[in-house]
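The authors assume throughout that readers already know how a fold can be written as discrete tokens. In essence, backbone conformation is discretised, so a fold becomes a row of integers matching the chain in length. A single example would do more here than another paragraph of explanation. For illustration, here is how one protein appears when written out as sequence plus structure tokens:

…
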Amino acid sequence: MASTRRNSYMPATEWVDPTPLPADDPHIDPNTPELGLTSAPLKSVAFFLGAVCKDKTDDFMLCKQDNNDPKACLSQGKQVTDCGIEVVNKVKQHCADSFANHWKCLDLNNQEYKSCRPQERTFNECIFTSLGWQKTIPGAPKDKQGEVQQIWNKKNQIFS
């Protein structure tokens, strides 16, 4: 049985969960904005989010580890969300074209980085020159000179 190719459907309006938040809970702020990214843009900017928001994310994870009550960590979670929104807004402000090219490539290629190395290289260069953020992969192996050789900087990639 052959499958058919169908175009994806993206509604013009944003979906909002109709379930109301509990009105009696002082910990919940219904006006808290969300990041507003789908998986491809989020994956494209993920390493920068992880690096820039590391301290806030660590505080949030420690809070979650120490408390069984999810309400206890809502303020730390809001700080992580605010940091993420700030990072995404800076990326969109300074590198909108290269960001869009990279995440669209990821979206079209099953979200595999290996298919989008040229766009990734351009995006990383823009981020570094505009914002001074450098993408590093934690635990990446070192080369013969003792320096970390990031995969998108390799000239002759055998495996990416």
